Amino acid sequence: GENVEQHPSTLSVQEGDSAVIKCTYSDSASNYFPWYKQELGKRPQLIIDIRSNVGEKKDQRIAVTLNKTAKHFSLHITETQPEDSAVYFCAASGARGSYIPTFGRGTSLIVHP
Amino acid sequence: EAGVTQFPSHSVIEKGQTVTLRCDPISGHDNLYWYRRVMGKEIKFLLHFVKESKQDESGMPNNRFLAERTGGTYSTLKVQPAELEDSGVYFCASSRLGGVENLNTEAFFGQGTRLTVV
Question: Which of residues 69-108 of B touch A (CB under 8 A)?
């Protein structure tokens, strides 16, 4: 089955800096890659996703890039703010028609004011 | 639209007892997933329903775990008898079927049930 590795496990940045979280996946047939943000005590919520037919997608301060050849995808947050502090999870799905998202271990992002 | 709801939000039980978790998915979402997260680790897949059918239960740890989805609506996850290692946050998520191209769609999560077995 699919295996998703996520790094780093913890990321600490100063407000205004950029943050990058990287994930790799094992199944080259995966074609959907969502990113979820989980704030303390709340449910994981989708913040951005990308499909395998595109290499980059941007939404205001967040962007995701996908390298299908290398089987890795990354989340980029620019001009970080304290409210960006949360746990971020990457996921991969779609291989062989499966809907099941396989998640990474999560990255705890701390943005210091 | 109403989101995915889970009950209870917290449960503390003794080893050997039984606990039943409930998940109400978003109306119209045929896909329903159960996941578990142990502190600091990944959100680990347990099983997947499409409507009332178990599509994939390869992530269920053992036969102490039983999931059902009556009539393709809400789902329950029963742990009997509970063991210490069953502690964690149990998430339910739901999504729409992707249509003829089988395109994956966003999975919406419930707030989770924090299970503590003592």
Answer: 91, 93, 95, 97-98, 102-104, 106-108
Residues 6+ apart with CB under 8 A from B99: none
Find the mean pLDDT for residues A44-61.
94
pLDDT value for B99: 64
Q: What is the DSSP string of chain B?
A: ----EEE-SEEEE-TT--EEEEEE--TT--EEEEEEE-TTS-EEEEEEEETTEEEE-TT--STTEEEEEGGGS-EEEEESS--GGG-EEEEEEEE---TTTT---PPEE---EEEEE-
Ranges of residues in chain B with a pLDDT under 50 are none
